[in-house]
Amino acid sequence: MNTALSSIIIASVQVVLFVFLAPLLMGLIRQVRATIEGRAGAGIWQPWRDVRKLLAKNPVRAEGSSWMLRAGPVALMVSSLLLCVLLPLVGTIPFPSIPSDLFVIVSVMLIGVVALALVGLDGGTAFGGMGSSRHMTVAALVEPTLLLSVYALSIPAGTSTISAIVETRLLSPEVIISPVSVLALVALSIAIMAETARLPIDNPGTHLELTMLHEAMTLEASGRDLAWLEVGSWLKLAALLGLVSNLVVPWGIVTDFSALGLLIGVVTIAVKVLVLGVLLSVGEIFLAKVRLFQVPELLAGSFALAFLAVTASYLVA
Predict the structure, then answer these.
(1) Keyword set for this entry (predicted)?
(2) Among residues 275, 231, 277, 214, which one has the least CA distance to residue 29?
(3) From CA 214, how far away is CA 211, in angstroms rounded?
C-alpha cells in the first residue's frame, strides 16, 4: 500500500478514535477524582450525555455579538481535529504534503488558542474579557516552552518532524531515559497542563469567576457553540496526552502499515491516554491552583528546563 493512502487511513482512524476517546477521557478523569474524594460521581459516560444534550439545543448569543461568536467554537474544534490528524498517535506515517512538523503543530494549536480568546472577548462581558486576557498571557509563555522542549527532543533525530522523533525514540530506547529527554519531557508536561487549563495553572472544576481562565471564556456560550468548545478542548487534551505517551513509551505505534499493526496501534494509544488520564486525575487531587501572579514564575521555570535541555543536548552531542 502506498504511503499517501496509508497516511490517510491512519489519520482517519486517529480522528474517529479520539472523537470517541476524548469525552471518555474526561469522564474517566472526573470519575476517578470523585471516587478518591469519596463521591459517587456521574459516571464516565456523562460527558457524552452532556454533548448530546448541548448539540440538540440552539445557542443563545448576546445582542451585538459578531460572527466570531459563531465561528470561534468551530475554529477551535477544527484546530483540535487537525492536531489529531497531524500528530503521530496511532502511527508515524506522515502526510507527504503536510508534515507533522513542530512549527506546523504549534501553529495549528495557536489557531485554537486565539479563537477561544476571541470568543471570550466577543461576548462583551467583564469576565469573558478577563479570562481572554489571562488566557493569552499564559499562551505567550507556553508556546516558547513547547517549541524549545520538542526541539530538544528533535536534536537526536536530526529533524523537527514529530513522527520522525517518535520513530527515533522507538529505535533508540536509550534516548528516552537520557537527562536531556527527562528535562524536555518535564518542561513539555508543564506546558501542556497550562495549554489545556489543568491544575495547577487553572482549575477546570471551579465556578468562582475571579479565578477562572478557560471557564471564563465560555460563560456566554450555550447550545451547539458550547458543545464545540467543550469537545475541542477535550480533543486537544487527549491528543497532547497521546503525544506525551508516545514520546515516553513509543512501543505499539504503527511504523509500517498493516491491519494487525493498526489494531495494535489503536488499542495501545487508547490504553496509554486513559492511563495518563488516571494519573493526571490522581495527581490533581494533591495540587492546588497557584495564584495568578505565580503562574509566570512556574511557566518561566518550565522554559528554563526546556532551555537547559536544548543546551545539554548540544553539549552531550
Answers:
(1) Lyase, Membrane, Transmembrane, Transmembrane helix
(2) 277
(3) 10
Mean pLDDT value of segment 134-153 = 94
Cα separation, 95 vs 283, in Å, equals: 36
**Dihedral class, residue 91 (left if φ above 0, else alpha if ψ from -120 to 50, else beta):** beta
In the structure grid, which three cell numbers stand for residue 106, read together? Answer: 504549534
pLDDT at 317 over 70: no
The number of domains in the chain is 1
Indicate the angle between helix axes 68-86 and 3-36, nearest 10 degrees: 110
Q: Range of 12's domain?
A: 3-315
Stated pTM of the model: 0.96
29 alpha carbon, distance to own chain's centre: 15
Could you give the C-alpha distances from 172 to 36, 129, 175, 197, 249, in angstroms and in order? Answer: 38, 47, 6, 33, 12
Whether the predicted pLDDT of 111 surpasses 90: yes
Short-list 128, 135, 7, CA closest to 62 = 128
